[in-house]
Specification:
- The chain is built from 13 helices and 18 strands.
- Helix 7 packs antiparallel against helix 8.
- The protein starts with a helix and ends with a strand.
- It is α/β, with parallel strands linked by helices.
Length: 397
Amino acid sequence: MNYSRIRLLLLKNAFLSLVLITVYGCNSSDSQSEQKISKAEAKNYYNEKTEVKYAKGFTIDYFSHYKIVNIFGTSGQAADTAKYLLLERGTARPEGFSEVQLIEIPVRSMAVMSSMHVGLLGFLGSENVLTGLANLQYVYSSEVIKMIGARKIAEIGRDQGLNDEKLIEMHPDLLMTMGSPGAKTQHYQTLEQAGIPVLTNSEWIENTPLARAEWVKVVAALLNKEEMVNKKFAEMEKEYNRIASLAAKVKDKPTIISGLNTKDAWFLPGGGSYMARFFNDAGADYHWNDVKTDASLPLNFEAVYPVALDADIWLNVGFDKNDTKKGILAMDSRYGDFKAFKTGKMYSYNNRVNERGSNDFFESGTVNPHIVLSDLIKILHPELLPDHQLVYYKQLR
């Protein structure tokens, strides 16, 4: 018997068995890993979803472990649309979205470019995720001001732009900016290359108060706070519609004028604008309501003067919290001819302006349209809301 040959065969068989066990074990391990991933993805993360009812500038779609958010610009063109993949942290990126901007959720740290974005976070009680602001001066939220004092929030603006170096050093989970989605600047490209996703907030394209307020749902999707936003938005929406229905029943609508003449023109809200919708829902008779544009109307003083002469109430007059009737008259003596000036029915939205110069009308006012509307109804039809005290608006003395 050839013992050497038998020994060689046994060694070959042992080696082959070892290879098979190793391969099988690896394949089994890979298979189990894949099963874990697939089970994670199969899990329904989103028992609570949010629906977009009023806003035209964004959509949110829900899938097993990710969301797709589309932000639209004013042009309606594909080039002016941004798509974002909101992916649950620790799960696999789905196929077919390799070119889509990825944002891992829930977002843990966020830098923002506008105080309006602060208002969105405040609505959700999520100021704690804020780590960067374009300008630390212009903020109204007392909670955020405390965070600034504690050096928890950095200034990310510089020379009317962005401090890229500071942002890259901070490396927030997300930068929320303003403008149109199609306007990709070098700043944003640099940040995205550094692994900082940039999301464009285009709430300014909306032409109704509830539509602008609804942008809080984008932030809720980033933070996985759909349950909270659904509850709070529904309460606000219900109250807005309730008080708007009161004003809709009035027969006598006061005539109004809005704004002030500047050096170049008197800019009035177009009849299809956000502010004009406030006027309409508050029961006002607005002369330019039928000019259906959401843009401002740049008119000269002579075109506005005949309407302003007889307007019952003058809204949105003044630029500063310290404005007075005397100060307004000093700007142009012709203001003294206005009926509203003579009766003293002049109101500005500068009631909540802090010592930093930040106006809360543009911060929390955006997500509290029911309170803004209550102010306007109190001014136009005080009998409808006898117990309401003005919050954002005040009468000039």
